[in-house]
Amino acid sequence: MNSAQQSILVVDDEALIRKLLRISLAAHGYRVLEAGCGREGLALALEARPDLLVLDLGLPDMDGQELLAELRRDSQVPVLVLSVRAGDSEKVLALDGGANDYVTKPFSIRELLARVRVLLRRPAPPGQLPGTLSCGPLAVDLDSRRVSLEGREIALTRKEYDVLAMLARHPGRVVTQHQLLKDIWGPTHVEDSHYLRVVVGHLRQKLGDDPADPRFIVAEAGVGYRFQEHSP
């Protein structure tokens, strides 16, 4: 077995879902581990140290949100929640609780595989964050706080830049409204979602980003925003 092969732990009580994911992930070169309940999944996550955890929330012995909270005390493994729970409150709770992404059932295996690839991309080591984030035709210079689109500089306000930079630092990952408001406006403004909507609207206008067919900023309704990845 290739020592560089990435491993994915699937924690789901539905045997058919585990089988589908095992076949699909293995076909793309991943090593797949499985658990049918929360306690078994938590123990395996801490012992085997997989590269990614795919987590169902409706487990027979413990809630997936509880498993996530326990896991985050000892591990920062990327977690992709895969759940039938489609409510905004569940998504926000999971993402704010440490999940890296959230996909609802029924799901597209192609979309899930794409999100898996995003989460498994190795981040730059601490202290080695690049000075410029290049996302297709868009470049965000973290040192000078300048943004250019297809080589042309785009004038942004401070808040517009801060929102764009925070999203661009986590391409492909959902950043919740709560996270954006807390980090950029401060903890007293976490309920002021209209501030964020206005800033995102202005950003889209300046970037020529159609919300119906976005190139850069994708809205996860009622949850937050995700920066669209571009192939190199």
Automatic annotation (TrEMBL):
Residues 130-229 form the OmpR/PhoB-type domain. The lineage of its organism: Bacteria, Pseudomonadati, Pseudomonadota, Gammaproteobacteria, Pseudomonadales. Residues 130-229 bind DNA. Pfam families: Response_reg, Trans_reg_C. The keyword Transmembrane does not apply. It comes from Azotobacter beijerinckii. Residues 7-120 form the Response regulatory domain. Keywords: Cytoplasm, DNA-binding, Phosphoprotein, Transcription, Transcription regulation, Two-component regulatory system. GO terms for cellular component: cytosol; protein-DNA complex. One of its GO terms (biological process) is positive regulation of DNA-templated transcription. It is found in: Cytoplasm. InterPro entries: CheY-like_superfamily, OmpR/PhoB-type_DNA-bd, Sig_transdc_resp-reg_receiver, WalR-like, WH-like_DNA-bd_sf. This is Two-component system, OmpR family, KDP operon response regulator KdpE. The modification 4-aspartylphosphate is found at D56. Transmembrane segments: none annotated. GO terms for molecular function: cis-regulatory region sequence-specific DNA binding; identical protein binding; phosphorelay response regulator activity. Its main location: cytoplasm.
